[in-house]
Amino acid sequence: MDISQATQRLSALAQERRLAVFRLLVRAGGAGLPAGAIATSVGIPHNTLSTHLGILEQGGLVSSQKDGRRVIYRVDFEGTRALLAYLLEECCQGAPEVCEPALDAVLPACCP
Q1: Cβ atoms of 58 and 10 closer than 8 Å
Q2: Are 32 and 72 in contact (CB under 8 A)?
Q3: Residues facing residue 67 across a β-bridge
């Protein structure tokens, strides 16, 4: 990951409603949530939610998948882990392996 990608991902999270959506999807885990459930849980109108989800998806933090007439959104755990790894890259004076337990604790193996 380069600084441009990291900045885009951090910018995607730098808004209260998008951060709330992201955190909700983290709690949902690999199963994800349909857009309607996200809108209801976070209290965001559907059209506004669509914009926020699009920004999170462009940032590489969320993915979507059609399921019949619904769209299921999930946290992109690989993209999230890459961002966290980038932020911790210089951990402990250039020994990132020291920080791997922190990454594993934040994004456990249960999350694909």
Answers
A1: no
A2: yes
A3: 70
Break the chain into its structural domains and give their ranges: 3-106
Which pLDDT band holds residue 85 (cuts at 50, 70, 90)? confident
Question: Domain 3-106, what architecture?
Answer: Orthogonal Bundle (1.10)
**Count H helices, E strands: the chain?**
7, 3
CB atoms near residue 46 (< 10 Å): 11
**Rounded to whole angstroms, what are the CA distances from 44 to 28, 67, 86, 105?**
18, 21, 31, 30
Q: Supply the pTM of this predicted model.
A: 0.84
pLDDT digits over 92-109, tens only? 777 767 777 776 776 555
Cα separation, 17 vs 19, in Å, equals: 5
